[in-house]
Design brief:
mainly alpha, about 70% helix, TPR repeat, TPR-like_helical_dom_sf, repeat
Length: about 475
């Protein structure tokens, strides 16, 4: 693949999304980066996203939107922190400085503003700017994707759904990347519990583009949340050949596959997916989505009574370098799973103390603002659980259970904290906590009927508390 098929200056202008550069090659490379981002796929023939980022700077070093998309993707990836990564910090400054000394469109200026806000941790304010762009330019896919991902980090599920719903009528089937809107909309639908509609929209997307890994991912979520485990296993196996090439999302889709096996109590099958797919993909990519997935899978297995200590040891070199990044509380909680699993108290303390320090003066940073009321208590609950202080774990998590979504992620990802609360309540010596565990299980059974995992937990609660 070459950049020949991508949009040049005139094509972007014709779509009402002009780019401030005279370089056709820079415009095409911007499109190539955007396309790979939307498809969750690095095209090797283009040099992947990183290759295109280097090429767009070479084609026009002063092309502001080239800097916006390159720097924005590094920020949205949450793999490095402007607090600790000087190159990323200076890339943000360079983007802002370039914008201040050029004639740009109002839309481009807003993109720069949003990236600057995101870099300061003001994710909500960044979303406001992207949404303002979409009011005037509903076919600006970069604004839509950055907004979608940021709403996800904020746990703002309704906003994530409505952001896509608002722009859908403005898109036409002939437009580049049109079919990928189906996956974005489907994901918002499922996170707001419209499971039937989410499945239908995702399958419309797959009918148009079978290799749309985000649509596959959306269907995988539907079967997870409705406990249709056999359907999920069959679906993942039948579509694997299409989505496994989407290297940026394949690991996450394999994680969903492994969750079905945990749900059924098939721990060896889940571990096989960890060993054959998740660990290698995570180690090779270093991507945060892959990293939190491998942490989460081991923690879930450990709660189920499976010994995974050696695998935790393999993950520590991947998670430890990020212990003080603090880009997202969601990430911090997952790194903590590994340091606790390895009994590395030094790493655990470093993570917690550096986070506590940042909460003292949070400024605009949304994550630091939330840390004292949600992030740190959730971290402490995990520490208490690890030390066998189950009553304390319940006391910390119980008041927060309806606020877990504020740490971001999906319902399926955050379910690990619901499970942690149930396990802690079952193991607590406090009779009230034990009764509370049964209440939680009744509630879970009502929301997700015919779940083998819930049935197992109910049986365990009865055997513990007879």
């Amino acid at each position: 693949m070459t950049t020949a098929s991508f949009r040049d200056c005139a094509a972007w202008r014709a779509e009402g999304l002009p780019l401030s550069t005279s370089s056709n090659e820079a415009c095409k490379l911007y499109d190539a980066i955007l396309t790979q981002y939307v498809k969750w796929r690095n095209e090797e023939t283009l040099g992947g996203i990183e290759g295109c980022m280097a090429a767009v700077q070479a084609a026009d070093p002063d092309f502001v939107m080239g800097h916006v998309i390159s720097t924005g993707l590094q920020l949205v990836g949450t793999g490095s922190s402007v607090l600790r990564d000087q190159m990323l910090s200076s890339a943000v400054r360079k983007t802002v400085d370039l914008a201040s000394c050029q004639e740009l469109t109002a839309r481009e200026k807003q993109h720069v503003k949003a990236i600057d806000l995101f870099s300061k941790g003001a994710l909500g304010k960044a979303c406001d700017v992207w949404e303002d762009i979409l009011v005037e330019h509903p076919t600006d896919m970069l604004a839509l994707k950055f907004s979608h991902d940021s709403f996800f980090y904020l746990g703002e599920q309704t906003q994530m759904r409505d952001s896509v719903a608002r722009v859908l009528p403005h898109w036409k089937p002939h437009m580049p990347l049109y079919s990928y809107l189906k996956g974005l909309y489907s994901f918002g639908l499922l996170e707001t519990r419209f499971y039937d509609q989410a499945e239908r929209v995702a399958k419309e997307g797959l009918a148009l583009t079978p290799e749309d890994a985000w649509c596959v991912h959306s269907v995988a979520h539907v079967y997870e949340m409705t406990a249709e485990i056999e359907k999920g296993l069959k679906f993942m196996a039948s579509t694997e050949k299409d989505w496994m090439v989407c290297d940026m999302l394949a690991c996450h889709n394999y994680w969903h596959w492994a969750l079905y096996h945990i749900e059924k109590g098939e721990y060896e099958a889940a571990l096989s997916i960890f060993d054959e797919q998740l660990y290698h993909r995570c180690r090779n990519s270093g991507a945060m989505l892959d990293t939190v997935d491998v942490c989460s899978l081991l923690y879930r297995l450990e709660m189920e009574g499976v010994s995974v200590k050696e695998r935790y040891r393999e993950l520590l070199p991947i998670t430890d370098p990020h212990s003080e990044d603090h880009t997202l509380l969601f990430n911090d909680l997952h790194f903590l799973m590994v340091s606790l699993g390895c009994k590395e108290t030094g790493v655990t303390q470093r993570l917690l103390e550096s986070l506590r320090e940042l909460t003292k003066e949070p400024e605009e940073n949304h994550q630091f603002q939330l840390a004292s009321t949600i992030g740190l208590p959730m971290c402490q609950a995990m520490v208490e659980y690890d030390e066998g202080n189950y009553s304390k774990t319940v006391e910390l998590l119980k008041p927060l259970r309806y606020r877990f979504m504020q740490i971001g992620g999906s319902d399926a990802q955050r379910d690990i904290f619901n499970q942690l609360l149930i396990h802690a309540a079952m193991k607590s010596q406090d009779k009230h906590h034990q009764r509370f565990a049964r209440c939680l299980l009744i509630e879970r059974d009502a929301a997700r009927q015919n779940s083998p995992l819930t049935d197992r937990l109910i049986q365990r609660a009865h055997s513990l508390h007879i």
